[in-house]
Amino acid sequence: MDTTKPFSDFSSNACSPSEAAVILDTPDAPVLIDVRKNEAFLECNYTLPGALRRDPLQVAAWGSTVPAAASVLVFCVHGHEVSAGTAQALREQGRHARILEGGIEAWREQGLPLLAKAAGHATRWVTRERPKIDRIACPWLLRSFVDDTAEFFYVPVDQVASAAERESAMPYDVTPQVAKTVFTHVGEQCSFDAFIRHYHLQSDAALMRLADIVRGADTSRLDLSPQSAGLLAVSLGMSQMHANDHSMLETMMPVYDALYAWCRDAVAGQDEKHNWTPQAATP
């Protein structure tokens, strides 16, 4: 089979690990979704790099949140009924969905890359203390699109590497001198952009619009989006109000929910305009 074709060109509903390894490393990569049952997911200490985590029993609820333009590749433990049923449900919702042949175990047996996670836990992430923008926006993205039970640690910068090892956590938004990670700034892009690239979420136009807002606020390029200055102001103000980093995180989550909701309306041309003007004074 010609694995240089775009993912959507394949007629089969299954994809071998070797095919998937090639496709996932291209700009046309599908959204990769780990649909192992919760027990199997929790007891395992690895997953596929770039995989979103979703409960296969809830596909009717989350399937509609997958961008309609996206191709999807789902996997379970062995590529049997769990992934097949999930892919079929997604196809019935209008998504182009395929399964990974042999599941994650076939991928592992072929020696393909895996991402370590703590057995018995959700995904874990660690970064520098006193978050403002990127270190809050990234957790929002992770909980909204990757793993809604993801856990986050904020520690002094000189403790990020040791905390990552101790907690089986992935560092993010730190320099290479602090800890090795792919989830950090590259050129003019920020860590939020790195998560979008890694998890193949570029087909979500609303999320890409939010990325402009976050990048503008986080890198002091307020010309990137009119909303960036507002996000910067709110983030700095909230940081003054919350000395506890997790309190800051939980307080800001609804702010990003609201921004994303506005972005979805904006890209659909349905954003509400504020056009009120004061009435002329009555003589």
Structure commentary:
- The chain has 283 residues and is α/β, with parallel strands linked by helices.
- The protein has 2 domains: 7-116, Rhodanese-like domain (Oxidized Rhodanese, domain 1); 124-267, no CATH class.
- It has 11 helices and 10 strands.
- It has helices at residues 17-23, 38-43, 59-62, 81-92, 103-109, 134-146, 160-167, 191-198, 205-218, 228-241, 245-267, and strands spanning 14-15, 31-34, 46-47, 51-53, 71-75, 96-100, 115-116, 124-128, 151-155, 170-171.
- The strands form 3 sheets. Strands 1-6-5-2-4 form a 5-stranded parallel sheet. Strands 9-8-10 form a 3-stranded parallel sheet, with helices on one face. Strands 3-7 form a two-stranded antiparallel sheet.
- Helix 6 crosses helix 11.
- The longest helix is centred in the C-terminal third of the chain and has 23 residues, at 245-267.
- The radius of gyration is 20 Å and the shape is globular.
- The model is unreliable at 1-11 (pLDDT under 50).
Provide a compact summary of the structure.
This protein is α/β, with parallel strands linked by helices and 283 residues long.
Task: Classify the beta-strand content into a percent band.
Answer: 5-15%
**Percentage of residues assigned to helices:** 40-55%
Count of helical stretches: 11
Largest sheet: spatial strand order: 1-6-5-2-4
Low-confidence stretches: 1-11
User: What is the average of the pLDDT values?
Assistant: 90
Q: So what's the overall shape?
A: globular
Number of domains: 2
Report on the biggest sheet: 5 strands, parallel
Distance between the termini: 80 Å
Output the helix-strand order.
Answer: EHEHEEHEHEHEEHEHEHHHH
The count of DSSP E runs of length 2 or more, i.e. the number of strands, is 10
Compute the gyration radius: what is it? 20 Å
Structural class: alpha/beta
